[in-house]
Specification:
By secondary structure, the protein is α/β, with parallel strands linked by helices. The protein folds into two domains: 25-216, TIM Barrel; 233-336, Lyase, Ornithine Decarboxylase, Chain A, domain 1, CATH 2.40.37.10. The protein has nine helices and 19 strands. Helix 1 packs across helix 3 (57-66) and helix 8 (327-334) crosses helix 9 (338-344).
């Protein structure tokens, strides 16, 4: 172990360490506090759907609540039921559509639901979703009745381009439309802002903000900085499992997309697209024993090749995210978003060990 407690070598024969994701829950707490302060006096609701964007829903939700999140938001009934097992008292809001057959489970765990049209479910607190321009679920503003209901505890919308610094006008149009509808429900909690809107549009804070990507320390603005200080919570590490020297003219990987023009030392890394590493990540950097090294050839299902210094040893730590390589950089190199990149990291315990620091 290093003085900081981090391993300097991962055994290439240790199946549990084929890949390791470490989530720093103190970083989650710090990010929640930062976003809470920005949104004050509005509440912060932590979005932990999709296993907390691949970070681990139960530990992340507990850390967020510990840091002052007033509610946690999920996408599905099963996610709400699973969270209730570890969060006895937290307010849980299910953002996605729910079926009538699920309502008994939701009542049993005390969850709240989002409804975008049709009949209101019996005996469940309801958040009425208004489609102000996202064009997905929700009631059109002109179709909302003036009749109030005690079951409508919240009125919400979702913003389509709050992360687009070139299109403020559409977001402001959505907010104006939302405010006209929300005025019909003066006793209900109003919420519209995602992380991007929380950062860019103070007018969108209303009574609560729903922050997802930001609580993980990731930017909602693709490859651009968040504009506030956030701490990335996730590290993804693996190791050099084997070494090989390519002679001039030899290639590595499917499609022969890398051919050596001189003698090249490569390290074989036991992570591939079955572990959530995009096949398109060819040419991106990883960190091998503190040095930036290029992925060469096309990543395959279970492995990838990295050009390494000649003194690299088997077992050397390979950092895919962390140590200066960000999820945003890797996502950009793969032609996707940081959201998709982190959500895709494999969580099969037979292939990936997951550790929660500062629980």
């Amino acid at each position: 172990m290093t003085p900081t407690g981090r391993p300097t070598r991962i055994s290439a024969t240790d199946v549990r360490a084929r890949s390791r994701v470490t989530v720093d829950l103190d970083a989650v707490r710090a990010n929640v506090r930062t976003l809470r302060e920005l949104a004050h006096p509005a509440e912060l609701w932590a979005v932990v759907k999709a296993d907390a964007y691949g970070h681990g829903a139960s530990p992340v939700a507990a850390a967020a609540v510990d840091a002052g999140a007033a509610a946690v938001c999920v996408a599905a009934t099963a996610e709400a039921v699973a969270l209730r097992e570890t969060l006895a008292d937290a307010r849980i809001v299910v953002l996605g559509p729910t079926a009538g057959r699920e309502h008994g489970q939701l009542r049993a765990v005390g969850a709240e639901v989002v409804v975008g049209g049709g009949e209101l479910p019996d005996d469940l607190p309801v958040h009425l979703k208004i489609d102000t321009g996202m064009g997905r679920a929700g009631i059109r503003p002109e179709d909302v009745s003036d009749q109030s209901s005690k079951r409508i505890v919240g009125v919400m919308t979702h913003l389509a381009v709050a992360d687009d610094t070139n299109d403020d006008a559409f977001t402001r149009q959505q907010l104006a439309s939302f405010e006209r509808v929300a005025a019909k429900f003066p006793d209900s909690t109003r919420h519209a802002a995602n992380t991007a809107a929380t950062i860019r549009f103070a007018a969108s804070h209303y009574d609560a903000v729903r922050c997802g990507i930001g609580i993980y320390g990731l930017s909602p603005f693709a490859d651009r900085p968040a504009g506030i200080e956030l701490r990335p919570a996730l590290r993804w590490e693996t190791c050099i499992a084997a070494l090989k020297t390519l002679r001039p003219g030899e290639s590595t990987g499917y499609g022969r997309r890398f051919t050596a023009d001189r003698s090249v030392r490569i390290g074989l890394v036991p992570v591939g697209y079955a572990d959530g590493l995009p096949r398109a990540l060819r040419g991106a950097d990883v960190i091998v024993d503190g040095q930036r090294c290029e992925i060469v050839g096309t990543p395959s299902m279970d492995s990838l090749a990295v050009r390494v210094p000649t003194d690299t040893a088997v077992g050397a730590v390979v950092t895919i995210v962390g140590d200066g390589v960000t999820a945003e950089q890797q996502a950009t190199a793969a032609g996707t978003l940081n959201y998709e990149f982190v959500c895709s990291i494999g969580r099969d315990p037979l292939r990936c060990e997951r550790i929660f620091d500062n629980a």
